[in-house]
Design goal:
The chain contains 11 helices and 10 strands. The chain is α/β, with parallel strands linked by helices and 274 residues long. The longest helix has 16 residues.
Length: 274
Amino acid sequence: MPSISVIISTYNKPHFLEKVLTGYLYQSFKDFEIIIADDGSSDETKKIIENFNKIFQQEIHHVWHEDNGFQKCRILNAAIIKSSNDYLVFSDGDCIPNSKFLNTHSRLATKGYFLSGGHFPINEKVSNRLSIDDIKTQICFTKKFLFQRGQPIGKNYFKLINNVLLSNLFDKITPTRSTFNGNNSSAWRSDVIHVNGFDQRMEYGGLDCELGYRLNNLGIKSMQIRNRTTVLHLYHTRPYKNSKAIEINRQIRQATKRDKITRTNYGIANDAKS
């Protein structure tokens, strides 16, 4: 089972990050480091990270740049450079992992594949009521807990079934495509470096899927694990979402698929400027 570098993106949501890091504090798998990819947050986020560094056995690295609008791809690439382990797990600062999260990613890591995990979006009411103790005890990952606190019944509840055989079966029969999702995906560091990381031209809207397309074009297949490992996705609005950027992203993704591009010129090594 490979050692893991967990890359967590964040921007000015320290109250979310506290809950997320609590989830990593209780992982059954211990051979990992955390890299916070911070897209220009204020000092409150820095304080949260400093506090957790005092109690974590593992290292938490804070990779930060000045706030200059939505530059998630740029800070994710900086975090990839900072990473020191062979296997990378990507998630967001609003996604809480259960205690088996990293163990599942490391156990299923396979050469020639990236892993496509799932997320369970919880509504505003449940997000606000979710406590640190709920995460410590893992009760927040149960259907009964979420339903009693106001989460409507829906198909996402299948992702919370605590049964290995059933979750394996659901991953095999689900019609959902196994794409590279920034809130819960993993890949070998060497593969991510090979495709030159994230395309820094892209803003919100499918930037993670585009990296997955390039991995596919390289010959890296995707493995569906959305039911074997999922994260609780805390509710929030998206003021950074804009139609112009989404259209630009769509065109970039379309070109990546059409032209079978494996390496972006606007990534970790910014070839377009060299």
